[in-house]
Amino acid sequence: MSPALVTACAFIAYFVAYRFYSKWLASKVFRLDAAAVTPAHSQEDGIDFVPTRPLVLFGHHYASIAGLAPMLGPAVAVFWGWLPALLWLVCGSIFIGCVHDFSALVLSARHQGKSIGALCEDILGKRAKMLFLLLITFGVSLAMGVFVFIISLLFSWGDDFNPQQLSASTTSFPEVVMPSIGLIIVALICGWLLKRKQVSLLKVTIGGFSALLALIAVAYNVPTMGLPENMWPSSTQWTWLLMTYAFAASVMPVWLLLQARDFLNSLLLVLGLILMYCGFFLQGPSFDAPAFNSNPIGAPPILPFVFITIACGAASGFHSLVASGTSARQLDNEMHARPIGYGGMIAESLLGLIAVLACTTTLGSSTAWAKLYVNWSAVADNLAAKLGVFIHGSASFIAHLGVPQELAITLVAMVVVSFALTTLDSATRLLRFNLEELGIKNRYIATLTACTFICFFAFYKIDGKAAGLSLWTLFGATNQLIAGLALLTATAYLRQRKRTIWPLAIPAVFMIAMTMFGLSVKLMNFAQQAQWLLFGLALALMFIGVAVSITTVGAIRKSPNS
């Protein structure tokens, strides 16, 4: 089957879903009200609660949810073949992921901007809230620990990095350091101009985005800023620098850095996606990977693990934290929830789709693909290398437009890193919100605590590997469990108001069932391998999932519509 035809069908599905299904959800299920006062207005504080233009907020939301995961998950999941990954990305996003993000944003906007975990107290009770918040704290800390670790590797001067031949590098991309740092400075200036000087968004956008592109061009020509290898920071040093940045960014007012940086990042990704897809259709490649991999050596069973491996891009619990955390506190009008919540998830799914295409059509032959995806260990134990496959594959699409290959690689690598950084500081802020709702009210102490949790998963070693990587096998399950429980919470909210619940109830049951299935398989594997730490954590996750699910079902049965 032609990859171009498959992709065109996916585009049509996304369009129809947004045009009709999301409109029905907005008007008939959630009944959005343009006259409703959002928390951004009722609780405006100039730090976290700030009314924001819908285009800028879309940029923040999109940049925050589209981190490493929508590229990394598909790059791993294509091991089972391109068709399962593609079907889950398209169908999962339309019927589960988009609904999940949209509902979390609406619920938070109607409950004083509370996070999805804190919302449990209003809808399900205090016990469910505490369990949910603990689950979120573990999942976000683990994910960001891995993100920091991987970003530090991408920033480092790896063995395969050559400043004179950027295309030779597959695991390290120091050329993106300068534009990444430069973007922070540009964003600070843009935020100040927008807020304090009331400069028009158009002028700031043109100036800021032009500066970002100029930084990428300079980095292409001077990839290490003239520094020799012995003066370049190590991966450990980069980790400390990244955590220092995450702390500072997460306590700043959202208008100063977060909004402008995320908006510029989103423009960069949109530009990158347009170039990637245009190059893809121009190239018209064939699939190197099989539709189904009949011999996935060492891989866990495709059911349920393809649903767990691909989270962001299809359905991700982390998105409910962004939607009900930073995004809901900046929502200017309730009607904006549809394009930001539902539309933002479709935009992220497009990133996951191009990742599938980049990892299955650009290797030159089925033999080359089979060599790269030889067994599960080669795929799952080297996440940075799989990101390299995505970067080089998508850069090859752009190169078909006449862009030099190495410049295309620099551009794509910048997209990857910039979005990982965006997710890092947004997630640190979200973790701070979570800890504040657990009782740590001082935002500086809460942020320091959040950074400490992240550092544990980035630095602490288990069997010689960073704790985050050792525990990564549980992240997908944790993430999808959060998604399922968030959907259950929204289902209870709708039932209490005598609204249609099936668009949320069915996805909730599916997500929780797949997650529990996956955790059950993992429990048996951990027991057989005597990995008792992982066994205990998996058991705890199952307990939280069951406990919150039972509480939710009880709340639904007691509702007036039962």
Notes on the protein architecture:
- The chain is mainly alpha-helical.
- The chain has 23 helices and two strands.
- The protein has helices at about 5-30, 40, 55-65, 70-75, 80-110, 115-125, 125-155, 175-195, 200-220, 235-250, 260-285, 300-310, 315-325, 335-360, 365-370, 375-380, 385-400, 405-435, 445-460, 465-470, 470-495, 500-530, 530-560; strands spanning about 460, 465.
- It has a two-stranded antiparallel sheet with strand order 1-2.
- A hairpin with a 2-residue loop joins strand 1 and strand 2 (about 465).
- Helix 7 (about 125-155) runs antiparallel to helix 21, helix 8 crosses helix 11 (about 260-285) and helix 22 runs antiparallel to helix 23.
- The protein starts with a helix and ends with a helix.
Radius of gyration: 22 Å
Helix run count? 23
The amount of beta strand, in percent, is: under 5%
H/E series: HHHHHHHHHHHHHHHHHHHEEHHHH
Number of domains: 1
Q: Calculate the terminal CA-CA distance, rounded to whole Å.
A: 47 Å
Strand count: 2
In what order do the strands lie side by side in the largest sheet? 1-2
Largest sheet: 2 strands, antiparallel
- Helix content class: over 70%
Low-pLDDT runs: none
From the helix content, strand content and strand pairing, which structural class follows? Answer: mainly alpha
- Describe the global form: globular
Mean pLDDT: 89
